[in-house]
Amino acid sequence: MTKAYKNLIGGVWKDSVSGKVRESINPADTSDVVGTVPDSTSTDVDEAVSAARAAYKSWRLVPAPKRGEILYRAAELLIKNKDELGRLATREMGKILPEGLGDVQEAIDMAYFMAGEGRRLEGQTVPSELVGKDCKSVREPIGVFALITPWNFPTAIPSWKLLPAIVSGNCVVFKPSSDTPVCATRLVEILMEAGVPEGVINMVHGSGSIVGAYLAGHHDIEGISFTGSSAVGEELVKSCAGLDKEISCEMGGKNPIIVMDDARLDLAIEGALWGAFGTTGQRCTAASRIIVHEKVYDRFIEGLAKAASKLKVGDGLKDGTEMGPLIHKIQMQKVLEYIEIGKKQGARLITGGRQLTEGDYAKGFFIEPTVFADVTPDMRIAREEIFGPVVSVIKAKDLTDAINIANDSDYGLSAAIFSQDVNNCATAERDLETGIVYINAPTIGAEIQLPFGGIKKTGTGHKEAGGRGGALDMFLHWKVIYRDFSGKLQKAQIEG
Ligand code: NAP
Questions:
Q1: Which fold has domain 7-251+458-481?
Q2: Residues 6+ positions from 335 with CB-CB distance below 8 Å
Q3: Which architecture, in CATH terms, is 255-439?
Q4: How does pLDDT run across 278-298, given as a tens digit for each residue?
Q5: In testing the pocket of ligand 1, which one of 153, 236, 237, 251 has its CB within 8 Å of the most ligand atoms?
Q6: What is the C-alpha separation between 166 and 145, in angstroms, rounded?
Q7: How far is the CA of 152 from the centre of ligand 1 (A)?
Q8: I want to staple 171 with a disulfide (CB 3.0 to 4.6 A). Which of 52, 219, 409, 490 is the partner?
Q9: Domain ranges of the chain
Q10: Is 284 a catalytic residue?
């Protein structure tokens, strides 16, 4: 029997007041219902926000090292349950099992990292210009946050928001993607088992346009941390203008890899293959433009097409599968439309391009790994986020030309260069206009101990993950404290 998962409000697992549910489906086999979750309403959101508000009164006063200890326990529980959670990620989202396990590993890494932050959260002390006075800055929680997440990293991205938010002393109402709600629920169950107090994390399932939009605009929250498409993120930013809310949005990408004539071509082809077709191209950092020096262009496209055509596509839970399905039918149709657009605009399809429908493929949403050559920077497949297994190869005259093509994008998340020349690498590192740059590695594979996020249409507000400039900046305010112990009234900057 299909398991019915629930909302979590004030520590109680409960159904929506609507009494309705939504199904979560395995994209490799649509007859497999992974679970049902409540189809919530604004009333459920109101209740969750009130529960978070109430819990915030005491949670903000729990010492941060104690909050961190809960995250250590969560990390241990995630390790204990890694296999089950990794399989669930694959079953619910479609990514191949090694990636499903990697998704959970990212949450484990984040749990340990943010647990440690509970013992840091440092401020500054500086000397005062006056005798008998001291000056310091401290970091304080902000209040109640709405966390809204996509489906492509069903455990990792929720952990990127939940863990820094709560170690900082905030309470949250979490609205996970409707396509991967069971992974999100399992993560929250584990956090509760680790000892998160009632009301600190609340979770409301339901549609983005109803539950998500209502939550983001709620009068009683202080902030929103959103990851998803640029279309939804930009709407959220507009709708929150003037509402005095913190808002951070991590959105789409159109990530380039530059391959120079001095690159190790075998490594560049392997990197492009992983960057473009890992997670079926459904990563915000997926390599979707490969910009290749004209001297090695023919050899590169021949090698990439050969390698892509050999990738084993199928159910990610099966041994040996190298690329899984698209998340749902709408996404599959969108990708197929882009393949038609690429052909119509004159790009040369050198491998793939078709939906897979024979045998077991008919049960899910499968498309062949697809490579277009002779793409020009103005074509739509070179400009718009496709979010699927389609990569565009573009020819460049030299490094300057390649960097100009790479930067000619509305997005600015991740970029990469393959070159054995230190000067080429350093120039690219300096001139590529993205939040992340990889040298001799593809555009995917960020680690959690440094900030994650982009510029231009990709990101607005604070970045995610760890390190200076990471997620803690999103979830903490600075407060400055001057303490005068001279016993007299002292006036800064005033002589005499
Ligand atoms: P999406 O359609 O924008 O949805 C993201 C989340 O927002 C989901 O929980 C969704 O709920 C909710 N939502 C939808 N409409 C909403 C509204 N009007 N108000 C409030 N919330 C709303 O994105 P997606 O298809 O899940 O994810 C793919 C996108 O995420 C890609 O563009 C990818 O590049 C981006 N992404 C970016 C990063 C990054 O860090 N830069 C990382 C991963 C993914 P429902 O599921 O119920 O619709």
A1: Aldehyde Dehydrogenase; Chain A, domain 1 (3.40.605)
A2: 326, 367, 386, 387, 388, 389, 390
A3: 3-Layer(aba) Sandwich (3.40)
A4: 999 999 999 999 999 999 999
A5: 251
A6: 10
A7: 9
A8: 52
A9: 7-251+458-481, 255-439
A10: yes
